[in-house]
Amino acid sequence: MVRIEPYGDSGLRIQFGEDIxxxxxxxxxxxxxxxxxxxxxxxxxxxxxxxxxxxIYDPLILFYDDxxxxxKQLLSVLKEMELPPAKIxxxxxxxxxxxxxxxxxxAEKNKLIEREVIDLHTSKDYLIYMMGFIPxxxxxxxxxxxxxxxxxxxxxxxxxxxxxGIAGKQTGIYPVxxxxxWQIIGKTPVKLYDENKKSPILLEAxxxxxFVPIKEKEFADIEQQIKAGNYMPRTKTMAxxxx
Amino acid sequence: xxEAMKIIKPGLATSVQDLGRKGYQQYGVVVAGAMDDxxxxxxxxxxxxxxxxxxxxxxxxGPEIMMLENTVVAICGADLSPKLxxxxxxxxxxxxxxxGQRLSFGKPNNGGYAYLAVAGGLKTPEVMGSRSTYxxxxxxxxxxxxxxxxxxxxxxxxxxxxxxxxxRSIKITKAMDYQSRxxxxxxxxPDRQGFTEESIQQFLTSPxxxxxxxxxxxxxxxGPPLDGEADIISDAVLPGTIQVPANGKPIVLLADRQTTGGxxxxxxVISVDLPYVAQQRAGNELRFAAVSVREAQQQYVKREFLxxxxxxxxxxx
Lengths: 243, 317
Fold this sequence. Notes:
The complex is a heterodimer. By secondary structure, chain A is α+β, with helices and mostly antiparallel strands.
């Protein structure tokens, strides 16, 4: 059941479901594409999350009731919309060592060897359910429970940008330097947030990422290419049933 | 652009802010911006700027600033006892200041956040369309941080002759008295159904005190705990959203809020009442009253008319 409701005096929230699922995420991605396409005057931006889209609008241009009608119209064409295939972005990661100080702990707690943790972590494509927390941070779904681990009881004062971590059944990447309690298993040289770029944020909700293990040499090479401004992470479109 | 100001003393938490970084929240980018958007806009209008230009946000204990060229300034919002070369000046009024003169602040009399606008606006680099400072990830503003002693700030070109811009003032009304008691209007939801009816009633009838654990991100309140389902699936939070974590004590989210949160949301403060909330200090009591979205939006339109009148009346307030 889709529910539309006011959210303060400059927000309208559309709830698409009650739980975290790939299907709901697809509906939300589809709806956001429609919003992008329609460019409704007065709509400033929107925040897609696990089960809802919150639309921020200017009440000087649109009152709530007007926007609600527009949203109902969009929802009615949603079913007929064809969703373009999602993109998969490859994120190269140097696992373990000084860049992944908690890799051994993750292995130990799950009765695995480090290699197995890396294999499990790189064996899946992760759906970006939503973004939030800090600029460019992705909430990813689909990590194997075999490598789950509790957060650190004592968070680190600073985790450097690019660090890849695990917290409970979730995995994620720190896009900027930030304090945090995630167990850090590796690091990517790729910049998820780069304020000098025209589109400063690399990833987008509704798409996928795939972690690819790299060696120190490659890490340094990619870092060089990023500095020179000629690195783009590999992306492909998600073919039917590829997962 | 000219170096127009030098920071002699930084004050408690002085930062460059405009109306915030809009359009990137779906990527997790925090909006930041002025805690009191009305005062920021008013200060800009007084010095002949566009409403959304960047200005200095000054928290409680103000800085000391040396002016490096002749310009016009206005201070709106909290009354932090502003002075020019040691002589008291008024808030909500524009002043011609000469090269070499010093602006300073004294006792905080009313409210917590003042806005110092300078003719031409502050010209720190734009990040994603905004000059607002978000200290936590060192984004925007002056090097992504609060100002320090010895910082120099650049300004743009004034919109008219300085003489025309100085001596303008805005009539001070009750809306600018942050000590006057009044109800803070909220629109209930979106997790209203997660709270018991008694909790909603309690929220709307009990006083809630602003605690010292309050900052630009949000104000933690203390009062009768509210009973409800504390955790939700992470979802968007907006300016003024009131979250209730497991301890039942509400938190009003403000300029530096994250884009999403995991606590149930009982209500959101309406836009026109947010500056009043932002101007409250630790120990002050808040009382909430529910209004309809329609009423909140009518108030919003009313405030816009006021700002537009100020804009048009430029020069003859």
